[in-house]
Amino acid sequence: MRPLKIFLVAMVFVASAQVTALAANTERLEIINDTGQIIESLYIAPVGNTNWGKDFAEETPFDAYQKKVIKYNPAIRYFKLKFTLWDGREIVWQDDKRLDFSRAWRLILYSGKRDEIKYTIYKLPDEKSKRKSSD
Question: What residues pair up with 85 in beta bridges, in sequence order?
Fold first, then answer.
């Protein structure tokens, strides 16, 4: 009887791991480089991770005004971001500057006054705002 319990527990564990793997990287996020410079490296990782993970610009630099689509896990809400521009500047947002990707579909990176790098996140509308009013 005991081996059967161990087997069932193992099967539940395997099934839950597979569901988690399927949920990962299912949401699309469009990133637009509006900085006017080439982005040589681009990392987006969940807040709390010590590792920055994949460089989204590793294979091909992220040209000025180019769009790229990445996929992320919607179960994770807050992300940190780090990228390096052609001129060598490294911009990092993490911890108190974390990015909230909940329901996001577009992230625009751009240069503001005094050449500060800023961002805009476009979010999907709430379900209520999608419905037409019956007035």
Answer: 39
Spell out the residues 6+ positions from residue 101 whose beta carbon is closer than 8 angstroms to its own: 27, 29, 72, 74, 76, 77, 78, 79, 107, 121
Q: Is 95 helix (H, G, I), strand (E, B) or coil?
A: helix
Q: pTM, whole model, 2 decimals?
A: 0.67
State the Cα–Cα distance between residues 108 and 98, nearest whole angstrom: 15
Please give the C-alpha separations between residue 121 and each of 13, 15, 29, 40, 107, in angstroms, as whole numbers: 36, 34, 10, 21, 5
CATH class of 25-126: mainly beta
Q: Which residue has the tokens 């009887």?
A: 1
Cβ atoms of 55 and 42 within 8 Å: the answer is yes
Q: What is the pLDDT along the chain (135 residues), one digit of tens a residue?
A: 566 555 444 554 444 443 444 456 678 888 999 888 899 999 999 998 889 999 999 998 999 999 999 888 888 888 998 999 998 888 888 767 788 887 778 888 887 665 566 778 777 666 544 444 344
Among 44, 116, 39, which Cα is nearest to 84's?
39
